[in-house]
């Protein structure tokens, strides 16, 4: 590795993780010029790293990295681009979720309207529970379903149902 590659590796690190505007890029280039001056005086990379550690240029470079955090890329995108993508995905998910919920509610409403009033009264008021033997059976089924849901054996997740 020659002298210019020692500085180039730091330059690549900066460009790989940060999307710098022109003014910030000029500021970084000034620090890289100072690094190249140090590299020119060194015979090997170990000497360069020691000189950098003792030089104020190292603190300048670290300050650049900290100061440029607002320009950081996330998964190859700038923070602003990734935030836009995240908002877009949330909006799409919210619309889908809302449509699913409204569809389920509408189906339930249509079923209730289609059933005779006597059946709806039994369903809504729990009249079956007041019948001695039938009420006990209904209660057992309700408790059984409660425990199935509690321990994850109830209805499958919607995502699992869609995959099947």
Separation of the first and last Cα atoms: 55 Å
With helices defined by DSSP (H or I, 4 residues minimum), what is the helix count?
A: 8
The main sheet comes to:
2 strands, antiparallel
Beta-strand portion reads: under 5%
SSE string, helix = H, strand = E?
HHHHEEHHHH
Poorly predicted runs of 5 or more residues: none
CA-based shape: rod-shaped
Spatial extent as radius of gyration: 33 Å
SS-based class: mainly alpha
Query: Oligomerization state of this entry?
Result: single chain
Spatially, the strands of the biggest sheet line up as 1-2
Task: Assign a percent range to the helix content.
Answer: over 70%
Overall average residue pLDDT: 77
Summed up, what is this model?
The chain is mostly helical and about 160 residues long. The chain has helices at about 5-15, 20-40, 45-55, 55-65, 80-115, 115-125, 130-150, 160-164, and strands spanning about 75, 75-80.
Description:
This protein is mostly helical and 164 residues long. Helices cover 77% and strands 2% of the residues. It has 8 helices and 2 strands, in the order H-H-H-H-E-E-H-H-H-H. It has helices at 3-17, 22-40, 45-54, 56-67, 79-114, 117-125, 132-150, 158-163, and strands at residues 73-74, 77-78. It has a two-stranded antiparallel sheet. Strand 1 and strand 2 (77-78) form a beta hairpin. The longest helix is centred in the middle third of the chain and has 36 residues, at 79-114. It is rod-shaped, with a radius of gyration of 33 Å. The two termini are 55 Å apart.
